[in-house]
Amino acid sequence: MKTDGHYQLEGDAPELYERYLVPAVTSRWAADLLARAHPRPGETVLDLACGTGVVARQAAKLMGRGSVIGADVNAGMLRVARAVAADMQIAWLEASALNLPFSQDSFDLVLCQLGLQFFPSQGLALVEMHRVLSPAGRIALSVFSRIERTPGANAFVLALDRVLGPHASGMKRGEHLFQHPDQLRTLLQNAGFLSVEVTTVSQEISFPSVLDYVRFQLMATPMARLLADRSDCEPIISEIAMETKCLSTALIRQDGSFSFPQEAFVATGRKSA
């Protein structure tokens, strides 16, 4: 479902996302992002498009003391975030990145992991991030690079179009909106950020099987809407998995697992020099 230009996860998709995709994918990128952002004890940190909160949780553990707020437009993801981090001092807030409910100079650090590409206006979201940062504040964010640089995802989108018809892969391809690091660098600079650095990073991603990867993509992400009107999804999922497997034979280990490099652009910057 799409609301005000934002994709929503419904039903049990947020729980599946936390259970399967966070350990396999987003926890790896969270560790990388935080290693570059260096959250410090006592700081005030915003994790924007926080999803089920893996970045916020890791930031809070690294800091020890301070204030961490996780904000997301998706109520279902926030529900899971609250449950998973029930024993942690993290505030969770439903909010749009295009109209943050915070005053100017509210945060020392804004984090946004793999979320910018989903915002209806990346430029406006970055202006909002810049506004809520303190004068000495900084930003750290990541976005996936072009889909051909992540071969498992590329095979998956080709399989989607073969099985479900042309343009079925549009949402997944949208995750890989950024084709070159300069696109991200320019957006940050246009929003007023200084000392912008963009690094191309690759992580090795592994799933137990091609079928598991396809099932998680179609049940634990906004792509679940592709199968929303089908009473029996498993035959379609299996067919897409078979096509994905045929298109990515070299990526499959001898033990049957599905492993491939996943590439992203990771950017840091400051509000002032």
Q: Can you walk through the features of this model?
A:
- The protein has nine helices and nine strands.
- Helix 8 (210-219) packs across helix 9.
- The protein has helices at residues 13-37, 54-63, 75-84, 122-132, 151-164, 170-174, 181-190, 210-219, 234-247; strands spanning 2-3, 6-7, 44-48, 67-72, 90-94, 107-113, 133-144, 194-207, 258-270.
- Helix content is 40%, strand content 24%.
- With 273 residues, it is of the alpha/beta class.
- The N and C termini lie far apart (41 Å).
- It is globular and about 55 Å long.
- It has a single domain (2-270), classed as Rossmann fold.
- The chain has a seven-stranded mixed β-sheet, with helices on both faces. Strands 1-2 form a two-stranded antiparallel sheet.
Give a quick rundown of the structure.
With 273 residues, the chain is α/β, with parallel strands linked by helices. It has helices spanning 13-37, 54-63, 75-84, 122-132, 151-164, 170-174, 181-190, 210-219, 234-247, and strands at 2-3, 6-7, 44-48, 67-72, 90-94, 107-113, 133-144, 194-207, 258-270. The protein has 9 helices and 9 strands.
List keywords for this structure.
single chain; 273 residues; alpha/beta; Rossmann fold; seven-stranded mixed beta sheet; two-stranded antiparallel ribbon; 9 helices; 40% helix; disordered N terminus
